Amino acid sequence: MKAMKVAQALKEKSRLTKELKNVQEKIRKYNSLEIEQASKIAGKSERLQAEEKALVDAIVEIKTRISRSNNPVVDRIFRMSELKSLIVVLGNLNTKEGSVKEGYQATTPTVYVAQITEQMRDEMKANLQKEINSLQDELDLFNAITDC
Q: How are the residues of the chain apportioned to helix, strand and coil, as percentages rounded to the nearest 5?
């Protein structure tokens, strides 16, 4: 495989992955056909499987190259991933507060108090997103200048 920057390798990995998905869809589509149709496409399954294997091999090679190149910034990659997970957790956090009648037969309201209010949650998410953006900028620069 030719020399390239990490950013180019990531694009190539994405392209190869999409191509692999398309080939696998064709394999699925042409796997079981009526006998008349099967005779018209004889050998197609074998060609598709060979193409699938070649794509898998190329994806493994490029992922390995990317992984090796990313060693100097792997801590930032992991941090960014964990921060994104925290944003998801915060997004799913129930921030219900106040008096609420639950259900159509409820006669007395239930009073809720959120430990983390909606405003607090939104501020926390915004701060996490700022850090993610900063890490992403750093990784984008790394990917643009680092050989893979």
A: 70, 5, 25
* 70/93 Cα distance (integer angstroms): 33
pLDDT digits (tens, 9 = 90+) for 88-109: 999 999 999 998 888 788 788 8
- By the 10 Å C-beta count (0-12 exposed, 13-18 middle, 19+ buried), 147 is classed as exposed
pTM of the full predicted structure? Answer: 0.78
Closest to 62 in 3D by CA, of 125, 15, 111, 109: 15
Cross-strand bridge partners of residue 110:
100
What pLDDT digit, counting tens, does each position of 14-71 carry?
Answer: 999 999 999 999 988 877 767 777 666 767 888 999 999 999 999 999 999 999 999 9
Q: What is the Cα Rg of the chain in Å?
A: 25
Q: What does the DSSP assignment read for 88-130? A: HHHHT-----EEE--STT--SPEEE--SS-HHHHHHHHHHHHH
